Amino acid sequence: MANVVNQDDQNDVVKVINTQITAKISYLQELQQAISQHDDRKIYALLDNQRYASAILHTEKQENDHGVINLVDNLSAQLSNYLSTSLIQYLGKTYPFFYYEEYKQGHFKVFFGNWWDRREFGELDVLNIRFAFDQDEYSKLSQAFELAKSSKRYNSEQIQSISAENDHLQDLIDNANQREAQKEQLQAQLKETNTKTGMPWESGKQKEARQTLVDQLSELEDEDELARNAVKQIKNNEAKVLALSKENTILSYEQKSIVDTFGSFADFEVANRNLYADYLHTFMSEKQVDDND
Amino acid sequence: MTNEKYTATEQLHSFSASVKHGLKLGEQYVQLIDQLVDTEDLEKLLTAAQRLANLELDDQFVKFPHQYRSQDYYMLFVSRVLELHSDQSLQLNLSRSSWSLTGQFESIASLTNFEFVLEQSDNGGAFFTETGSNERLFYLNLERRMIRFNNRALVNLFVVQLAESVDSTALEQAVNPLIALTHFLKQDFGFSVDFGILDAANTAQYYLQKGKLSVDIIDKLFVQTEGTDYMLLNMQERVGATLVVESDVKLNLFAQNSDSQQNNNWLFSVLDSREAVSFFDVLVRYPLIRKWYLENRQELEVKSDPLIFAG
Protein backbone atom coordinates (compact mmCIF):
# COMPACT_ATOMS: atom_id res chain seq x y z
CA MET A 1 0.00 0.00 0.00
CA ALA A 2 1.24 3.32 -1.01
CA ASN A 3 1.11 6.21 1.34
CA VAL A 4 -1.93 8.03 0.20
CA VAL A 5 -2.69 11.29 1.89
CA ASN A 6 -6.00 12.88 1.41
CA GLN A 7 -5.33 16.50 0.62
CA ASP A 8 -8.66 17.71 2.00
CA ASP A 9 -8.13 15.95 5.30
CA GLN A 10 -4.70 17.47 5.52
CA ASN A 11 -6.08 20.92 5.10
CA ASP A 12 -8.55 20.32 7.89
CA VAL A 13 -5.83 19.09 10.18
CA VAL A 14 -3.72 22.13 9.54
CA LYS A 15 -6.69 24.29 10.29
CA VAL A 16 -7.31 22.47 13.53
CA ILE A 17 -3.71 22.79 14.53
CA ASN A 18 -3.68 26.46 13.72
CA THR A 19 -6.84 27.11 15.64
CA GLN A 20 -5.56 25.19 18.62
CA ILE A 21 -2.20 26.89 18.57
CA THR A 22 -3.85 30.28 18.29
CA ALA A 23 -6.07 29.42 21.23
CA LYS A 24 -3.09 28.30 23.25
CA ILE A 25 -1.08 31.37 22.33
CA SER A 26 -3.87 33.75 23.17
CA TYR A 27 -4.51 31.92 26.44
CA LEU A 28 -0.88 32.18 27.40
CA GLN A 29 -0.73 35.80 26.32
CA GLU A 30 -3.79 36.63 28.40
CA LEU A 31 -2.30 34.82 31.37
CA GLN A 32 1.03 36.55 30.92
CA GLN A 33 -0.65 39.92 30.80
CA ALA A 34 -2.81 39.17 33.84
CA ILE A 35 0.29 38.15 35.74
CA SER A 36 2.25 41.22 34.72
CA GLN A 37 -0.66 43.38 35.94
CA HIS A 38 -1.18 41.26 39.07
CA ASP A 39 -4.78 40.86 38.00
CA ASP A 40 -5.46 37.93 40.30
CA ARG A 41 -9.16 37.76 39.46
CA LYS A 42 -8.35 37.33 35.79
CA ILE A 43 -5.74 34.70 36.58
CA TYR A 44 -8.28 32.68 38.56
CA ALA A 45 -10.76 33.02 35.69
CA LEU A 46 -8.17 31.72 33.27
CA LEU A 47 -7.08 28.84 35.49
CA ASP A 48 -10.60 27.50 36.00
CA ASN A 49 -13.01 29.11 33.63
CA GLN A 50 -15.79 26.68 34.41
CA ARG A 51 -15.88 27.41 38.12
CA TYR A 52 -15.41 31.10 37.57
CA ALA A 53 -18.32 31.22 35.16
CA SER A 54 -20.63 29.37 37.47
CA ALA A 55 -19.65 31.00 40.77
CA ILE A 56 -19.08 34.56 39.62
CA LEU A 57 -20.86 35.06 36.32
CA HIS A 58 -23.64 32.57 37.11
CA THR A 59 -23.46 31.20 33.60
CA GLU A 60 -23.77 27.46 33.82
CA LYS A 61 -22.21 24.77 31.70
CA GLN A 62 -19.19 26.62 30.49
CA GLU A 63 -16.68 23.85 30.27
CA ASN A 64 -12.99 24.19 30.77
CA ASP A 65 -10.84 23.95 27.68
CA HIS A 66 -8.33 21.43 28.88
CA GLY A 67 -6.24 22.05 25.82
CA VAL A 68 -5.22 25.39 27.24
CA ILE A 69 -5.60 24.94 30.98
CA ASN A 70 -3.17 22.06 31.09
CA LEU A 71 -0.49 24.27 29.60
CA VAL A 72 0.41 25.64 33.00
CA ASP A 73 0.04 22.46 35.04
CA ASN A 74 3.74 22.31 35.70
CA LEU A 75 3.65 25.87 37.05
CA SER A 76 1.09 25.26 39.78
CA ALA A 77 3.58 25.65 42.62
CA GLN A 78 4.81 28.99 41.27
CA LEU A 79 1.31 30.24 40.49
CA SER A 80 0.16 29.23 43.95
CA ASN A 81 3.06 31.09 45.50
CA TYR A 82 2.29 34.12 43.33
CA LEU A 83 -1.42 34.19 44.14
CA SER A 84 -0.94 33.48 47.85
CA THR A 85 0.16 37.02 48.69
CA SER A 86 -3.20 38.67 48.10
CA LEU A 87 -5.22 35.67 49.22
CA ILE A 88 -3.44 35.38 52.58
CA GLN A 89 -3.78 39.10 53.08
CA TYR A 90 -7.53 38.77 52.52
CA LEU A 91 -7.75 35.73 54.79
CA GLY A 92 -5.85 37.63 57.46
CA LYS A 93 -8.88 39.88 57.75
CA THR A 94 -11.65 37.35 57.24
CA TYR A 95 -10.11 34.46 59.19
CA PRO A 96 -7.95 36.34 61.69
CA PHE A 97 -7.25 33.17 63.69
CA PHE A 98 -5.52 31.25 60.92
CA TYR A 99 -1.79 31.36 60.38
CA TYR A 100 0.09 30.01 57.37
CA GLU A 101 3.45 28.48 56.77
CA GLU A 102 4.75 27.87 53.24
CA TYR A 103 6.56 24.61 53.91
CA LYS A 104 7.50 24.29 50.25
CA GLN A 105 6.90 26.59 47.33
CA GLY A 106 3.19 27.12 46.83
CA HIS A 107 2.20 24.73 49.62
CA PHE A 108 0.80 26.22 52.81
CA LYS A 109 0.12 24.64 56.16
CA VAL A 110 -2.71 26.21 58.11
CA PHE A 111 -2.33 26.69 61.86
CA PHE A 112 -5.27 27.47 64.06
CA GLY A 113 -4.44 30.27 66.46
CA ASN A 114 -1.28 31.82 67.81
CA TRP A 115 -1.59 30.22 71.22
CA TRP A 116 0.72 27.68 72.79
CA ASP A 117 0.76 24.33 71.00
CA ARG A 118 -1.83 25.46 68.45
CA ARG A 119 -2.97 22.80 66.07
CA GLU A 120 -1.92 22.24 62.48
CA PHE A 121 -5.31 22.39 60.91
CA GLY A 122 -4.78 21.35 57.29
CA GLU A 123 -3.64 23.14 54.18
CA LEU A 124 -4.58 26.17 52.15
CA ASP A 125 -5.32 25.29 48.52
CA VAL A 126 -4.46 28.63 46.94
CA LEU A 127 -5.28 27.76 43.32
CA ASN A 128 -8.76 26.62 44.28
CA ILE A 129 -9.26 29.23 47.00
CA ARG A 130 -10.29 26.70 49.59
CA PHE A 131 -9.14 25.22 52.85
CA ALA A 132 -8.29 21.55 52.87
CA PHE A 133 -8.84 20.98 56.58
CA ASP A 134 -7.38 18.00 58.34
CA GLN A 135 -10.43 15.82 58.77
CA ASP A 136 -9.54 14.55 62.26
CA GLU A 137 -8.91 18.00 63.62
CA TYR A 138 -11.96 19.42 61.91
CA SER A 139 -14.24 16.75 63.29
CA LYS A 140 -12.92 17.34 66.81
CA LEU A 141 -13.84 20.99 66.50
CA SER A 142 -17.21 20.19 65.03
CA GLN A 143 -17.92 17.77 67.89
CA ALA A 144 -16.77 20.32 70.42
CA PHE A 145 -19.35 22.76 69.05
CA GLU A 146 -22.00 20.05 69.18
CA LEU A 147 -21.13 19.21 72.81
CA ALA A 148 -21.10 22.87 73.77
CA LYS A 149 -24.83 23.01 73.02
CA SER A 150 -25.37 20.79 76.05
CA SER A 151 -22.60 22.60 78.01
CA LYS A 152 -20.22 19.68 77.63
CA ARG A 153 -16.63 19.63 76.59
CA TYR A 154 -14.76 17.37 74.23
CA ASN A 155 -12.61 15.49 76.73
CA SER A 156 -14.41 16.15 79.99
CA GLU A 157 -15.93 12.69 80.38
CA GLN A 158 -12.58 11.04 79.82
CA ILE A 159 -10.90 13.43 82.23
CA GLN A 160 -13.55 12.66 84.82
CA SER A 161 -13.16 8.92 84.51
CA ILE A 162 -9.36 9.08 84.68
CA SER A 163 -9.56 11.39 87.69
CA ALA A 164 -11.95 8.95 89.36
CA GLU A 165 -9.48 6.15 88.67
CA ASN A 166 -6.75 8.23 90.27
CA ASP A 167 -8.89 8.83 93.33
CA HIS A 168 -9.44 5.09 93.57
CA LEU A 169 -5.71 4.39 93.22
CA GLN A 170 -4.93 6.97 95.86
CA ASP A 171 -7.39 5.24 98.20
CA LEU A 172 -5.63 1.94 97.58
CA ILE A 173 -2.34 3.52 98.58
CA ASP A 174 -3.87 5.21 101.62
CA ASN A 175 -5.60 2.01 102.81
CA ALA A 176 -2.50 -0.19 102.87
CA ASN A 177 -2.45 -0.42 106.67
CA GLN A 178 -6.12 -1.19 106.89
CA ARG A 179 -5.69 -4.03 104.38
CA GLU A 180 -2.80 -5.41 106.35
CA ALA A 181 -4.98 -5.60 109.47
CA GLN A 182 -7.80 -7.21 107.53
CA LYS A 183 -5.45 -9.81 106.09
CA GLU A 184 -4.15 -10.76 109.52
CA GLN A 185 -7.66 -11.17 110.76
CA LEU A 186 -8.66 -13.33 107.80
CA GLN A 187 -5.56 -15.48 108.15
CA ALA A 188 -6.37 -16.06 111.81
CA GLN A 189 -9.89 -17.04 110.90
CA LEU A 190 -8.61 -19.38 108.23
CA LYS A 191 -6.28 -21.07 110.67
CA GLU A 192 -9.12 -21.55 113.06
CA THR A 193 -11.30 -23.10 110.36
CA ASN A 194 -8.52 -25.47 109.40
CA THR A 195 -7.91 -26.74 112.91
CA LYS A 196 -11.55 -27.10 113.81
CA THR A 197 -12.81 -30.58 113.17
CA GLY A 198 -16.55 -30.42 112.93
CA MET A 199 -19.17 -33.04 112.49
CA PRO A 200 -19.13 -34.86 109.16
CA TRP A 201 -22.35 -33.19 108.02
CA GLU A 202 -20.72 -29.83 108.67
CA SER A 203 -17.75 -30.37 106.35
CA GLY A 204 -19.58 -28.92 103.30
CA LYS A 205 -20.37 -25.73 105.17
CA GLN A 206 -16.81 -25.62 106.50
CA LYS A 207 -15.36 -25.91 103.04
CA GLU A 208 -17.58 -23.11 101.89
CA ALA A 209 -16.53 -20.87 104.74
CA ARG A 210 -12.89 -21.60 104.01
CA GLN A 211 -13.32 -20.77 100.37
CA THR A 212 -14.92 -17.44 101.26
CA LEU A 213 -11.95 -16.54 103.44
CA VAL A 214 -9.46 -17.55 100.76
CA ASP A 215 -11.33 -15.47 98.19
CA GLN A 216 -11.37 -12.44 100.46
CA LEU A 217 -7.66 -12.79 101.08
CA SER A 218 -6.80 -13.02 97.42
CA GLU A 219 -8.95 -9.99 96.70
CA LEU A 220 -6.93 -8.02 99.24
CA GLU A 221 -3.70 -9.26 97.71
CA ASP A 222 -4.89 -8.11 94.30
CA GLU A 223 -5.47 -4.70 95.78
CA ASP A 224 -1.96 -4.76 97.26
CA GLU A 225 -0.58 -5.50 93.83
CA LEU A 226 -2.55 -2.60 92.34
CA ALA A 227 -1.37 -0.30 95.11
CA ARG A 228 2.24 -1.21 94.38
CA ASN A 229 1.87 0.06 90.82
CA ALA A 230 -0.46 2.88 91.74
CA VAL A 231 2.12 5.64 92.09
CA LYS A 232 3.33 5.06 88.57
CA GLN A 233 -0.19 4.69 87.25
CA ILE A 234 -1.30 7.90 88.91
CA LYS A 235 1.57 9.72 87.25
CA ASN A 236 0.68 8.28 83.87
CA ASN A 237 -2.92 9.26 84.38
CA GLU A 238 -1.95 12.77 85.37
CA ALA A 239 -0.01 13.10 82.12
CA LYS A 240 -3.06 11.87 80.23
CA VAL A 241 -5.31 14.33 82.02
CA LEU A 242 -2.90 17.14 81.19
CA ALA A 243 -2.92 16.21 77.49
CA LEU A 244 -6.72 15.98 77.46
CA SER A 245 -7.11 19.26 79.34
CA LYS A 246 -4.75 20.90 76.90
CA GLU A 247 -6.88 19.68 74.03
CA ASN A 248 -9.96 21.06 75.77
CA THR A 249 -8.25 24.41 76.18
CA ILE A 250 -7.19 24.48 72.55
CA LEU A 251 -10.70 23.60 71.41
CA SER A 252 -12.18 26.29 73.63
CA TYR A 253 -9.89 28.91 72.07
CA GLU A 254 -10.80 27.65 68.60
CA GLN A 255 -14.50 27.79 69.37
CA LYS A 256 -14.17 31.27 70.79
CA SER A 257 -12.26 32.47 67.71
CA ILE A 258 -14.95 31.17 65.39
CA VAL A 259 -17.79 32.59 67.45
CA ASP A 260 -16.03 35.97 67.72
CA THR A 261 -15.51 36.14 63.96
CA PHE A 262 -18.46 34.34 62.41
CA GLY A 263 -21.08 34.08 65.14
CA SER A 264 -21.48 30.31 64.89
CA PHE A 265 -19.92 27.17 63.50
CA ALA A 266 -22.64 26.98 60.87
CA ASP A 267 -21.78 30.48 59.67
CA PHE A 268 -18.14 29.48 59.58
CA GLU A 269 -19.00 26.57 57.32
CA VAL A 270 -21.08 28.79 55.05
CA ALA A 271 -18.16 31.19 54.77
CA ASN A 272 -15.87 28.31 53.82
CA ARG A 273 -18.24 27.24 51.08
CA ASN A 274 -18.54 30.78 49.72
CA LEU A 275 -14.87 31.62 50.06
CA TYR A 276 -14.13 31.39 46.32
CA ALA A 277 -16.90 33.75 45.30
CA ASP A 278 -16.47 36.08 48.27
CA TYR A 279 -12.77 36.44 47.62
CA LEU A 280 -13.07 37.09 43.90
CA HIS A 281 -15.88 39.57 44.46
CA THR A 282 -13.54 41.74 46.49
CA PHE A 283 -11.62 42.48 43.28
CA MET A 284 -14.78 43.64 41.60
CA SER A 285 -15.79 46.08 44.26
CA GLU A 286 -12.22 47.34 44.37
CA LYS A 287 -12.14 48.32 40.72
CA GLN A 288 -15.11 48.05 38.44
CA VAL A 289 -13.91 45.53 35.95
CA ASP A 290 -16.14 44.39 33.18
CA ASP A 291 -17.13 40.78 33.19
CA ASN A 292 -16.60 39.95 29.60
CA ASP A 293 -14.56 36.87 30.18
CA MET B 1 72.54 47.85 139.79
CA THR B 2 72.77 49.87 136.65
CA ASN B 3 71.88 46.82 134.67
CA GLU B 4 68.75 46.17 136.64
CA LYS B 5 67.77 49.82 136.39
CA TYR B 6 68.35 49.69 132.72
CA THR B 7 66.21 46.62 132.42
CA ALA B 8 63.36 48.23 134.31
CA THR B 9 63.48 51.25 132.03
CA GLU B 10 63.59 49.03 129.05
CA GLN B 11 60.61 47.10 130.29
CA LEU B 12 58.68 50.28 130.91
CA HIS B 13 59.54 51.54 127.48
CA SER B 14 58.48 48.34 125.94
CA PHE B 15 55.26 48.40 127.94
CA SER B 16 54.49 51.96 126.95
CA ALA B 17 55.26 51.13 123.34
CA SER B 18 52.79 48.28 123.50
CA VAL B 19 50.12 50.46 125.08
CA LYS B 20 50.86 53.14 122.52
CA HIS B 21 50.37 50.57 119.80
CA GLY B 22 47.05 49.58 121.29
CA LEU B 23 45.99 53.18 121.68
CA LYS B 24 47.09 53.98 118.19
CA LEU B 25 45.00 51.10 116.97
CA GLY B 26 42.09 52.48 118.96
CA GLU B 27 42.69 55.92 117.58
CA GLN B 28 42.75 54.49 114.10
CA TYR B 29 39.55 52.61 114.92
CA VAL B 30 37.59 55.66 116.01
CA GLN B 31 39.00 57.65 113.14
CA LEU B 32 37.79 55.00 110.68
CA ILE B 33 34.41 54.91 112.36
CA ASP B 34 34.13 58.68 112.04
CA GLN B 35 35.13 58.34 108.43
CA LEU B 36 32.53 55.64 107.85
CA VAL B 37 29.85 57.74 109.44
CA ASP B 38 30.74 61.22 108.23
CA THR B 39 32.60 61.15 104.94
CA GLU B 40 30.87 62.31 101.80
CA ASP B 41 33.65 60.89 99.68
CA LEU B 42 32.55 57.56 98.27
CA GLU B 43 36.01 56.03 97.94
CA LYS B 44 36.89 57.01 101.52
CA LEU B 45 33.66 55.43 102.63
CA LEU B 46 34.52 52.15 100.93
CA THR B 47 38.07 52.21 102.33
CA ALA B 48 36.77 52.81 105.85
CA ALA B 49 34.31 49.94 105.64
CA GLN B 50 36.91 47.60 104.16
CA ARG B 51 39.52 48.40 106.78
CA LEU B 52 37.09 48.23 109.67
CA ALA B 53 35.81 44.86 108.53
CA ASN B 54 39.36 43.52 108.61
CA LEU B 55 40.69 45.33 111.64
CA GLU B 56 41.94 43.15 114.53
CA LEU B 57 41.29 45.60 117.29
CA ASP B 58 41.96 43.54 120.37
CA ASP B 59 45.38 44.05 121.75
CA GLN B 60 47.02 42.41 124.73
CA PHE B 61 47.44 45.74 126.49
CA VAL B 62 44.48 47.78 125.39
CA LYS B 63 41.00 46.28 125.42
CA PHE B 64 37.87 47.72 123.87
CA PRO B 65 34.85 46.20 125.59
CA HIS B 66 32.37 47.76 123.16
CA GLN B 67 32.88 46.96 119.51
CA TYR B 68 30.76 46.38 116.49
CA ARG B 69 31.14 43.00 114.81
CA SER B 70 33.08 42.86 111.53
CA GLN B 71 29.94 42.14 109.54
CA ASP B 72 28.26 45.24 110.95
CA TYR B 73 30.54 47.48 108.90
CA TYR B 74 28.98 45.98 105.79
CA MET B 75 25.58 47.05 107.09
CA LEU B 76 26.85 50.53 107.95
CA PHE B 77 28.45 50.83 104.54
CA VAL B 78 25.24 49.82 102.76
CA SER B 79 23.20 52.21 104.81
CA ARG B 80 25.63 55.08 104.14
CA VAL B 81 25.70 54.45 100.39
CA LEU B 82 21.91 54.65 100.35
CA GLU B 83 21.91 57.71 102.59
CA LEU B 84 24.37 59.52 100.31
CA HIS B 85 21.76 59.06 97.59
CA SER B 86 19.02 60.37 99.89
CA ASP B 87 17.54 56.92 100.35
CA GLN B 88 16.51 56.39 103.97
CA SER B 89 14.67 53.14 103.52
CA LEU B 90 17.13 50.91 105.37
CA GLN B 91 16.55 51.40 109.09
CA LEU B 92 19.38 50.31 111.37
CA ASN B 93 18.90 48.92 114.88
CA LEU B 94 21.74 48.52 117.30
CA SER B 95 21.22 45.95 119.97
CA ARG B 96 22.79 47.36 123.14
CA SER B 97 23.08 43.96 124.74
CA SER B 98 24.94 42.16 121.97
CA TRP B 99 26.41 45.14 120.12
CA SER B 100 25.09 43.78 116.87
CA LEU B 101 23.59 45.76 114.05
CA THR B 102 20.51 44.72 112.13
CA GLY B 103 18.54 46.40 109.36
CA GLN B 104 14.89 46.62 108.39
CA PHE B 105 12.75 47.77 105.52
CA GLU B 106 9.64 49.65 106.50
CA SER B 107 7.08 47.80 104.37
CA ILE B 108 8.02 44.40 105.82
CA ALA B 109 9.52 45.53 109.12
CA SER B 110 7.18 43.51 111.31
CA LEU B 111 8.03 40.28 109.50
CA THR B 112 11.73 40.41 108.77
CA ASN B 113 15.07 41.49 110.12
CA PHE B 114 18.38 41.53 108.27
CA GLU B 115 22.03 41.29 109.15
CA PHE B 116 25.25 40.45 107.40
CA VAL B 117 26.85 37.04 107.95
CA LEU B 118 30.55 36.69 107.19
CA GLU B 119 31.71 34.24 104.55
CA GLN B 120 34.10 31.87 106.32
CA SER B 121 36.35 31.01 103.40
CA ASP B 122 39.41 33.00 102.28
CA ASN B 123 37.29 34.68 99.64
CA GLY B 124 35.96 37.01 102.32
CA GLY B 125 32.81 39.03 101.90
CA ALA B 126 29.48 38.66 103.64
CA PHE B 127 25.89 37.58 102.98
CA PHE B 128 22.94 39.87 103.54
CA THR B 129 20.78 37.50 105.52
CA GLU B 130 17.24 37.49 106.87
CA THR B 131 17.66 36.47 110.49
CA GLY B 132 14.41 34.56 111.00
CA SER B 133 14.54 32.39 107.90
CA ASN B 134 18.30 32.48 107.41
CA GLU B 135 17.79 33.28 103.73
CA ARG B 136 20.91 34.81 102.20
CA LEU B 137 19.60 37.38 99.76
CA PHE B 138 22.89 38.58 98.35
CA TYR B 139 26.63 38.30 98.66
CA LEU B 140 28.74 41.42 99.01
CA ASN B 141 32.51 41.57 98.70
CA LEU B 142 34.06 45.00 99.27
CA GLU B 143 37.65 44.04 98.31
CA ARG B 144 36.64 42.41 95.05
CA ARG B 145 33.91 44.97 94.49
CA MET B 146 31.18 42.54 93.66
CA ILE B 147 27.55 41.88 94.54
CA ARG B 148 25.51 38.80 93.58
CA PHE B 149 21.85 38.13 94.29
CA ASN B 150 20.63 34.72 95.33
CA ASN B 151 17.49 33.90 93.35
CA ARG B 152 16.50 30.87 95.37
CA ALA B 153 16.60 32.89 98.61
CA LEU B 154 14.68 35.79 97.04
CA VAL B 155 11.94 33.37 96.00
CA ASN B 156 11.94 31.56 99.35
CA LEU B 157 11.61 34.75 101.35
CA PHE B 158 9.43 36.99 99.21
CA VAL B 159 7.47 34.68 96.97
CA VAL B 160 6.92 31.67 99.22
CA GLN B 161 6.97 33.21 102.66
CA LEU B 162 5.80 36.80 102.32
CA ALA B 163 3.65 36.96 99.18
CA GLU B 164 0.78 35.20 100.92
CA SER B 165 0.51 37.76 103.71
CA VAL B 166 1.90 40.96 102.18
CA ASP B 167 0.74 42.67 98.99
CA SER B 168 3.01 42.95 96.00
CA THR B 169 3.51 46.70 96.43
CA ALA B 170 5.01 46.20 99.88
CA LEU B 171 7.33 43.48 98.56
CA GLU B 172 8.47 45.64 95.68
CA GLN B 173 9.03 48.53 98.09
CA ALA B 174 11.17 46.28 100.24
CA VAL B 175 13.49 45.21 97.44
CA ASN B 176 13.69 48.64 95.81
CA PRO B 177 16.52 49.89 98.09
CA LEU B 178 18.47 46.71 97.34
CA ILE B 179 18.11 47.33 93.62
CA ALA B 180 19.06 50.98 94.10
CA LEU B 181 22.08 49.97 96.18
CA THR B 182 23.26 47.64 93.44
CA HIS B 183 22.94 50.40 90.86
CA PHE B 184 24.97 52.76 93.07
CA LEU B 185 27.66 50.18 93.66
CA LYS B 186 28.00 49.69 89.94
CA GLN B 187 27.89 53.32 88.96
CA ASP B 188 29.84 54.88 91.87
CA PHE B 189 32.41 52.19 92.58
CA GLY B 190 32.48 50.09 89.43
CA PHE B 191 31.26 46.95 91.20
CA SER B 192 30.61 43.84 89.19
CA VAL B 193 26.91 43.22 89.78
CA ASP B 194 24.36 40.49 89.25
CA PHE B 195 20.81 41.59 90.04
CA GLY B 196 19.46 38.09 89.48
CA ILE B 197 15.69 38.02 89.14
CA LEU B 198 15.54 41.65 90.33
CA ASP B 199 17.02 42.81 87.03
CA ALA B 200 14.34 44.81 85.20
CA ALA B 201 16.29 45.35 81.97
CA ASN B 202 14.70 43.75 78.93
CA THR B 203 18.03 42.14 78.11
CA ALA B 204 18.04 40.33 81.46
CA GLN B 205 18.13 36.58 80.90
CA TYR B 206 16.95 34.40 83.74
CA TYR B 207 18.35 30.97 82.95
CA LEU B 208 16.83 27.89 84.50
CA GLN B 209 18.97 26.04 87.00
CA LYS B 210 18.20 22.74 85.31
CA GLY B 211 18.86 24.01 81.81
CA LYS B 212 16.47 21.70 80.04
CA LEU B 213 12.71 21.93 80.30
CA SER B 214 9.95 19.49 79.54
CA VAL B 215 7.19 21.25 77.60
CA ASP B 216 4.62 19.59 79.90
CA ILE B 217 5.42 22.37 82.31
CA ILE B 218 4.34 24.94 79.75
CA ASP B 219 1.23 22.86 78.99
CA LYS B 220 0.29 23.18 82.65
CA LEU B 221 0.42 26.97 82.50
CA PHE B 222 -1.52 26.92 79.23
CA VAL B 223 -4.31 24.88 80.78
CA GLN B 224 -4.35 27.10 83.88
CA THR B 225 -4.75 30.27 81.84
CA GLU B 226 -7.98 29.09 80.24
CA GLY B 227 -10.87 31.21 81.37
CA THR B 228 -8.56 33.97 82.64
CA ASP B 229 -7.61 37.20 80.90
CA TYR B 230 -4.25 35.73 79.98
CA MET B 231 -3.55 33.68 76.90
CA LEU B 232 -0.32 31.76 76.54
CA LEU B 233 0.99 32.40 73.05
CA ASN B 234 3.26 30.40 70.87
CA MET B 235 6.52 32.30 70.33
CA GLN B 236 7.35 33.22 66.78
CA GLU B 237 10.84 32.34 65.55
CA ARG B 238 11.65 30.50 68.76
CA VAL B 239 10.76 27.37 70.63
CA GLY B 240 8.84 28.78 73.57
CA ALA B 241 5.82 30.58 74.89
CA THR B 242 4.81 34.14 75.70
CA LEU B 243 2.34 35.29 78.30
CA VAL B 244 1.03 38.83 77.92
CA VAL B 245 0.45 39.63 81.58
CA GLU B 246 -0.47 43.24 80.97
CA SER B 247 -0.83 45.30 77.83
CA ASP B 248 2.79 46.31 78.10
CA VAL B 249 4.33 43.40 80.01
CA LYS B 250 5.32 40.14 78.36
CA LEU B 251 6.77 37.09 80.05
CA ASN B 252 8.69 34.75 77.75
CA LEU B 253 9.94 31.25 78.43
CA PHE B 254 12.01 29.84 75.61
CA ALA B 255 14.92 27.69 74.50
CA GLN B 256 18.16 29.58 74.02
CA ASN B 257 18.88 27.86 70.73
CA SER B 258 16.04 27.74 68.24
CA ASP B 259 17.54 25.11 65.92
CA SER B 260 18.84 22.33 68.10
CA GLN B 261 16.43 20.38 70.26
CA GLN B 262 19.21 18.83 72.29
CA ASN B 263 21.24 20.44 75.04
CA ASN B 264 18.96 23.38 74.97
CA ASN B 265 19.08 25.83 77.82
CA TRP B 266 15.78 27.40 78.70
CA LEU B 267 15.34 30.87 80.11
CA PHE B 268 12.77 33.45 81.12
CA SER B 269 12.75 37.04 79.95
CA VAL B 270 10.41 39.90 80.84
CA LEU B 271 9.76 42.67 78.34
CA ASP B 272 8.13 46.04 79.00
CA SER B 273 8.66 49.34 77.26
CA ARG B 274 9.93 51.15 80.37
CA GLU B 275 12.20 48.26 81.38
CA ALA B 276 10.80 48.59 84.87
CA VAL B 277 9.48 45.06 85.42
CA SER B 278 11.67 42.18 86.55
CA PHE B 279 10.97 38.47 86.84
CA PHE B 280 10.72 39.02 90.59
CA ASP B 281 7.94 41.59 90.01
CA VAL B 282 6.06 39.14 87.80
CA LEU B 283 6.24 36.48 90.51
CA VAL B 284 4.98 38.74 93.27
CA ARG B 285 2.33 40.53 91.18
CA TYR B 286 0.55 37.73 89.38
CA PRO B 287 -0.87 34.93 91.56
CA LEU B 288 -1.48 32.69 88.54
CA ILE B 289 2.18 32.74 87.55
CA ARG B 290 3.35 32.51 91.14
CA LYS B 291 1.23 29.42 91.74
CA TRP B 292 2.45 27.75 88.57
CA TYR B 293 6.08 28.66 89.30
CA LEU B 294 5.97 27.31 92.84
CA GLU B 295 4.12 24.14 91.83
CA ASN B 296 6.81 23.40 89.24
CA ARG B 297 9.70 25.00 91.02
CA GLN B 298 12.04 22.06 90.67
CA GLU B 299 11.88 22.51 86.92
CA LEU B 300 11.58 26.30 86.81
CA GLU B 301 14.08 27.43 89.47
CA VAL B 302 16.17 30.30 88.14
CA LYS B 303 19.92 29.93 88.43
CA SER B 304 22.18 32.23 90.45
CA ASP B 305 25.93 32.79 90.12
CA PRO B 306 27.15 29.19 90.58
CA LEU B 307 30.51 30.31 92.01
CA ILE B 308 28.77 31.81 95.02
CA PHE B 309 25.47 29.97 95.26
CA ALA B 310 26.01 26.35 94.32
CA GLY B 311 22.99 24.24 93.37
UniProtKB/TrEMBL annotation, chain A:
Keywords: Coiled coil. It comes from the Bacteria. Residues 159-240 form a coiled coil. This is Exonuclease SbcC. It comes from Paucilactobacillus wasatchensis.
TrEMBL record, chain B:
It comes from the Bacteria. This is Uncharacterized protein. It comes from Paucilactobacillus wasatchensis.
